[in-house]
Task: structure prediction
Amino acid sequence: MPRDPSKFIASDLVDSKCTECGAEVPDKFNSCFELFMSILTPLGLKRVESPDIAILHHLIVDTGAMQHPKGGCKSAKSYAAHLTGLCCGVEYNGSKSIRSALQRWLNGSAESIGITRPTEPDYRGMLTIRYVYDAETGEELVARVHEWAKQVWKAYASQHGIARNWIRKAIGG
Result:
C-alpha cells in the first residue's frame, strides 16, 4: 500500500528537540517531520530507478513512523503496516514479496483482519532521523538508516511476536 507521508503529523519541538523521538532538529527545519522529509523526498524521486533505493525508502518511512507513533501510527492498520514494514526491512531485507503480501492483507478493515493497535513502548531507540541526516556520504547514509532501523526495531522487542504473527498471516502461513 502506498504510504502518504503528508498524513504524518509533525511532533512538537521544545527548544529545537522533537517531543516524540528527542532528535535535535537543526534551526532550518520547523519540525522533525521536515527533517525527515529532507531525506525522504530525494529518495522517493529515485526509488523507481532502483529496488535498493525503494527498500531504503520504505525502511526510512517505517522506522520514522514507529519512532513517531502518535503521528505516524494512529490507527490499528497504520500501526500494523509500519510495525510489519519495519520487521520486513530489518529481518527480511525489505522483501518485495512480503511487502506485497502485507499490502494485500492490510486491504481489509482492521476488524476483518483481526488486528488491534498495541500500545507503543515509551522508549523507541536512541538513534533518530538526525543521525541519518548527519551522514556525509551516500554509503554512510545507507549504513546509518540500517543502524537506526535496527535500534528502533530492538526498542519494539516486546512486539516482535505480534509483527511476526501478522507477517505470517499476510503470507498465508
In short: The beta strands are 13-14, 17-18. The longest strand covers residues 13-14. The mean pLDDT is 88. The first helix runs from residue 32 to 46.
